[in-house]
Amino acid sequence: MRNDPASLAAAVLARVGGPANVTSVAHCMTRLRLGVADPAAVDGEGLRGLPGVLGVVADGESSLQVVLGPGVVVEVTATAATAGAAAVRTRVGEGTADLPIQVGESTAAVQPQASEPPVGAADRVREQLRQRNATPFKAALRHVAAVFVPLIPALIGCGILAGINGLLVNAGRLPGLTPALASVASAFMALITVFVGYNTAKEFGGTPVLGGAVAAVIVYPGVAKVTAFGVHLAPGQGGVLGALAAALLATRVEKWCRGRVPGALDVLLTPTVTVLVSGLVTLYGLMYVAGVVASAIGTAANWLLATTGALAGLVLGGLFLPLVMLGLHQALIPIHTTLIEQQGYTVLLPLLAMAGAGQVGAALAVYARLRHDTSLCTTIRSALPAGLLGVGEPLIYGVSLPLGRPFVTACAGGAAGGAFIGFFAMLGDKVGATAIGPSGWALFPLLAGNRGPGMTAAVYGGGLLTGYAVGFAATYFFGLPRGSRVAASA
After folding, report:
1. Catalytic residue among 28, 158, 257, 411
2. What integer is the mean pLDDT of 441-460?
3. Domains identified in the chain and CATH numbers
């Protein structure tokens, strides 16, 4: 039975110290991300035991991730944000908008200033842990996620429509409808740089529309008349990387202007100078440089799979689960987006998706070996459908990670599946995904390649089966000591 989102949100808030302890609310595809004022008030065990909570992950000393799964996370986030905002208004004595909801890895925190600095040993330890976790690299990853993750729903929707349209065109069906479908599916990708610029300025404290305006220069057809570094620019040159750099520059220029332009002239001069300076630098520098980098990414990805495909697939498929655990997978989002923009699909995502296949195989082996552990088997039965569709958190946090060794053998299954797909890439059969986000069986509608949909689906399906088989065998024979048990955490 599906849990009521309002009841689940209330239960989650009660176990994180109440709405008054919530300082920020965010969500991605499957996780509710909460900032908390007092980490000591969080009841981690009680939170993990809630029906509907698939797992809990600490994300720094003052924030945590509550794994809820796709769909329900959106509704729970909205309820939690509203309740948290009401508590903030009561706390600081003002009533404005709700807590901001971000579809991404970060959000602006809304909290009152502390009346006095932290004191006591516990407070000093918490502050030391917070500073240790707030590394520039982790902060950069959070910013990257906040820029690109909100675009994933549109990428998925447009990617599926593009796949349907391709099937209709190849089959010669509905010729009157396919041009319209192509327009609907392609329009977002044609203007994705504008959305990247908008989100970048918003994330880094600038005016979002100015970031979008500067990034729009990249896709404006008139740039074909502009010469930079001795060559004519092409509309779209530099893509999302150029948009990211252009919007970052626009944010810096805008902040510089805000501190120097008189208030009476700010509304006129600041946006003008921001767009002018950033736009010209984008045209005469950033577009060219970003175009070179983007081309290098595409060339490197193609070369990697064509020459070392099996090895590359083995490494990428085997290491993706640890990357997800550390949050480092977010660094791949701009690369995926660049490849989709350049080639129509990313060849890296199907390789990485094999990690989920290894996870499913490992869970099945755990079920076979520990079938007398009723609570564990119940967890596996409830989590397997989500795992087959590419939502791996229930199996990770409820099964393989608590047991330890099955997490490693799951990585072995992912490595085998990745090597399978990489081997076919070496033979010239490239498998890609037209959007990022889904994996497992949910990725089939988004598959694309250079040898037709049948061959592409067959290679990807073969990779999944390989990942299942190797993950199962490695876990069954090497992943579980006799008598192993684990308490289900979901």
Report:
1. 28
2. 92
3. 5-109+120-130 (3.30.1360.60), 149-303 (no CATH), 344-479 (no CATH)
